[in-house]
Amino acid sequence: MPSSGHRLRDVEHHPLLAENDSYDSSSSSSSEADMADRVWFIRDGCGMICAVMTWLLVVYADFVVTFVMLLPSKDFWYSVVNGVLFNCLAVLALSSHLRTMLTDPGAVPKGNATKEYMESLQLKPGEVIYKCPKCCCIKPERAHHCSICKRCIRKMDHHCPWVNNCVGEKNQRFFVLFTMYIALSSVHALILCGLQFVSCVRGQWTASWELFSVVLVLLDRSEPWQVQWECSDFSPPVTVILLIFLCLESLLFFTFTAVMFGTQIHSICNDETEIERLKSEKPTWERRLRWEGMRSVFGGPPSLLWMNPFVGFRFGQLQTRPKKGGPEFSV
Fold first, then answer.
1. Where is the signal peptide (predicted)?
2. What integer pLDDT is reported at residue 179 of this predicted model?
3. Bigger pLDDT: 270 or 1?
4. So where are the chain's domains?
5. Measured between alpha carbons, how far is 173 from 169 in angstroms, rounded to an integer?
6. What is the C-alpha to C-alpha distance for residues 42 and 101, in angstroms, rounded to an integer?
7. Contact at 8 Å (CB) between 128 and 121?
8. Is the pTM of this model over 0.90?
9. What are the backbone dihedrals phi and psi of residue 10, each rounded to the nearest 5 degrees, phi first?
């Protein structure tokens, strides 16, 4: 137990360290630096399936937009501009998804609830500190334990299975960018689908009278004739099915991501996580409101770098984390 100068508040009776675990307080800073250089990944079956489904749906949307709508178009610049725009949005969305999924959300080091470590904190007499009985760590203010990641996460907002990770202090920026780019690409896909339906109906309506006259001439000549579908390289039933499914997917994605984007921006501007809002926790910290909160999440003054999911990215080598008891490994 800690010294009498401060108190350790715990939810249940739990040893500071298990018999087979050890913790060196002198190496805590270096271990946190190593974790910052690694890429985080949660080995959760449901989360991995949801993440793969997200990628497949984005790839499907890109396939329909590119090969069903844009490449068969006779307007060259229409195809080029919309193709470049949609593919850029898709790349930015998937990159933001990867950064959210593979970034440590702010995990507290395991097993640091030792007497030596607490003495190094230089706590004031009577000051209360909290220990998580599940991962045996000293919980910082506003940290919560995630049962899926099996770690305490600083400023944990929620655990999102679609990114297979918690949204916390260090990756909230990338989650906001992911929801924003998915919402923009969904709107773009809906607009392209609407234009495609209008152009196909208008083109086929105009061509029907020409086709009728051609059929009459061919019937008089008793020659074989074929009807050509000029709206897409695919057959009409396949084209209609692909476009309808893309419309439904885009509508669902836009609704979900637009709501999440608005919720995240509201939480950042009010400096309140979703867990804190649901629990109606009274703030014991100095709130960073509006632009101060935005700068703390996105870093620096407002600029185009806020929109860039590649900021701070560094390649690493895949290596298994040596610590036991957690579902994550590092890259």
1. none
2. 97
3. 270
4. 45-107+162-214+231-304
5. 9
6. 8
7. no
8. no
9. -135, 155
CA dihedral sign, ordered 248, 174, 107, 285: negative
> Which of 175, 41, 176, 148 lies closest to 104, judged by CA?
41
Q: DSSP states of 101-165 as a string?
A: HTS---BPPTT---HHHHHHTTPPTT-EEEEETTTTEEEPTTEEEETTTTEEEET--EEETTTTE
Whether residue 208 is predicted with pLDDT greater than 60 in this model: the reply is no
Nearest to 86 by CA among 174, 162, 163, 190: 190
Query: Which position has the higher pLDDT, 275 or 323?
Result: 275
User: What does DSSP say about strands 128-132 and 137-139: parallel, antiparallel, or unpaired?
Assistant: antiparallel
**How big is the CA angle at 314 (ends 53 and 141), to the nearest 5 degrees?**
80
What is d(CA 257, CA 263) in angstroms, rounded to the nearest whole number?
Answer: 10
Instruction: Quick: pLDDT tens for 273-282.
Output: 888 888 777 7
Read off the pLDDT of residues 150-171 as tens digits, 9 standing for 90 and up: 889 999 999 999 999 999 999 9
Residues forming the active site: 160
Does the pLDDT at position 7 exceed 80? no
CB-based burial, 87-110: b 16+ in 10 Å, e otherwise: eebbebbbbbbbbbbbbbbbbbbb
Any idea which residue has 């305490």 for tokens? Answer: 152
CB 319 within 8 A of CB 41: no
Which single residue is written with the structure tokens 């290596």?
Answer: 319
